[in-house]
Amino acid sequence: MFTGIVEELGEVTAVEDLGDAARFRLRGPVVTQGARHGDSIAVNGVCLTVVDHEGDEFTADVMAETLKRSSLGVLTVGSRVNLERPTAVGARLGGHIVQGHVDGTGTILERTPSEHWEVVRISLPAHLARYVVQKGSITVDGISLTVVEAGEDFFTVSLIPTTLALTTLGLKQPGDPVNLEVDVVAKYVERLLGDRVQGADR
């Protein structure tokens, strides 16, 4: 379980094509501290398992399904990535509950800078639109953010200087893909209400 509070901006140092999968080597001095084989690390919001760890780098295997459903498939050597370790039991929940299970991808549509923050408009897949509401939570490339405006096929977020400086959203430009994970609470509520409605109709 993660919180969407990015710990560091890492870097892809190697990509190996395995045919039906890929193996990534990533540099992250913070998240590799104490890392062991089998540990989880979120990479741009995707929960990956540490295969190997040496120095300040770790490797992780990514299966074809993950490459297809997320933006990890476009990563190349030198790409910057958001990294986060799972939250410890009893730690403060600084963002919101994030599973590291990407629901889909969006595209940066527009960036509107101002003096103290920047508004970013992101496309929203139709199947995710019902879970995104104004002032609700959403995870973009592993970053816990608050929705400013929720449209039928887009949403906007406001980014403070710290987020711009310490995450990939300070680097990405219109046309770039981002991973999206909607609030899991919304999905559970939908499922529970759906079962109740179906039961009432019987």
UniProtKB/TrEMBL annotation:
Keywords, in A-Z order: Repeat, Riboflavin biosynthesis, Transferase
CDD domains according to UniProt: Riboflavin_synthase_like (cd00402)
Annotated metabolic or biological route of this protein: Cofactor biosynthesis; riboflavin biosynthesis; riboflavin from 2-hydroxy-3-oxobutyl phosphate and 5-amino-6-(D-ribitylamino)uracil: step 2/2
Pfam families: Lum_binding
Location of the Lumazine-binding domain: 1-96, 97-193
Any one GO molecular-function label of the UniProt entry: riboflavin synthase activity
Lumazine-binding repeat ranges per the UniProt record: 1-96, 97-193
Record carries keyword Transferase: yes
Catalytic activity line of the entry: 2 6,7-dimethyl-8-(1-D-ribityl)lumazine + H(+) = 5-amino-6-(D-ribitylamino)uracil + riboflavin
Domain of life: Bacteria
Top EC group: transferase
EC number: 2.5.1.9
Alphabetized InterPro entries for the sequence: ATP_synth_asu-like_sf (IPR023366), Lumazine-bd (IPR001783), Lumazine-bd_dom (IPR026017), Riboflavin_synthase-like_b-brl (IPR017938)
Function: Catalyzes the dismutation of two molecules of 6,7-dimethyl-8-ribityllumazine, resulting in the formation of riboflavin and 5-amino-6-(D-ribitylamino)uracil.
Record-given protein name: Riboflavin synthase
